[in-house]
Amino acid sequence: MSTETVTIQKLGAQGDGIANGTDGPVYVPFTLPGETVAIARIKSQGTVMSITTPSPDRQEPHCRHFGPDGVNGTCGGCTLQHAGDALYRGFKRQLVIDALKSKGLTPEVGELVVAHPGERRRVTFAARKTEKEMLIGFNQAESHHLVNIEECPISSASLIARLPAIKAIGAALAVNAEAFRITVLETATGLDIAADGLKTLSDQQRRKATETVLSMRGIARVSVNGEILIEPVKPMLDFGGVNVSPPAGSFTQATKPAEEAMAELVLAHVGKAKRVADLFAGTGTFSLRLARIGRVHAVESEDKPLAALDHAARNTQGIKPVSVERRDLFRRPLMTSELKVYDAVVFDPPRAGAEFQCKELARSTVKKIAAVSCNPLTLARDLAILVEGGYRITSVTPIDQFLWTSHVEVVATLEK
Ligand SMILES: C[S@@+](CC[C@H](N)C(=O)[O-])C[C@H]1O[C@@H](n2cnc3c(N)ncnc32)[C@H](O)[C@@H]1O
Prior knowledge:
InterPro entries: MeTrfase_TrmA_AS, NA-bd_OB-fold, SAM-dependent_MTases_sf, U5_MeTrfase_fam
Number of strands: 21
EC number: 2.1.1.190
Number of domains: 3
GO molecular function: 4 iron, 4 sulfur cluster binding; rRNA (uridine-C5-)-methyltransferase activity
Binding site for S-adenosyl-L-methionine: 253, 280, 300, 348
Bound molecules: S-adenosylmethionine
Number of helices: 10
Active site: 374 (nucleophile), 374
């Protein structure tokens, strides 16, 4: 380990400050551009010891778990609480601009749709049972050290108020020293709690966890490694007025405002399309809203979300028909010939993007495409394929869903 004083030049893609050190770039978490900082350094990784010249954009962190001085944060959940709003928002927008530019694309990129504290309705916590207590929180960055949290300003206050109940359920499910994950989703009918990474449960553990849940109010479901343990009431989500019961542990957008912002952009672009394909449809976040406008074909690789989507569509009056198809779109994208019947296509893939699907789309006659993404780099690659195929990018909107992290969602719209 060596020590030196460096000046931070810019923020990297993960939100770390980047400085030119004595022998190459050094990444310094919890710093901001323009700051002069004394660091301890191991290879290209720096740890702040003190800040000589703080940035005017530095602000007090919002949460005690971020670290007392906003420098040596302990909880690995947030990385950018110390950045003022203007710098933070500009950073996220710039991530999208830079990713697009790296593929030769220079469309106008809109202002970031901002996130606010208290919006997270779905949170994945690290959990560990010790002899003394049940710990729930986030792992410290680059470490397995679990920071037990008592507050979390990004999360819904009502979810955080249930931490004692979530801990009691975790304690009933786990054996001592067992480390696992608990995903909590706040739904209209109560908390949907999914524990993952636990070893097989004994009958006694099942009984104890079930009794614990039954002694509580407001718990809709508890599942373990994807299997439902107890479901006093079906968890329900509302996708633009359509009620959906999500399967245990399935994907749900982490905040309702981000989901609504994305859906609004998608719907505005698709306009009055009579037939729409929604690819990587999940439980129907977009499909069920689109079905108010036209017929929808929803494609998704997982059985359970697709079944939930199908059930919701069949049981809702006043929407257009929704057909569903289970299909691995990485291996078997919708072919150009199949795409002929659609006026518009929406796609919202996982982080890897939709490269092969975009190659087919690029050759298609589909007039309008809405691309939703959680990874600006793969989005840029996919948009470049579509542009090469004759599509014009009509808008790019970055959306903040994971407040005070370096993650950014994007909705891009295209026309041919
Ligand atoms: C980012 S989520 C979006 C889901 C949905 N659009 C939403 O907003 O809730 C990506 C979805 O793609 C699905 N998926 C992942 N790999 C896939 C593949 N190879 N083919 C089709 N769907 C896939 C996942 O199961 C997941 O539902």
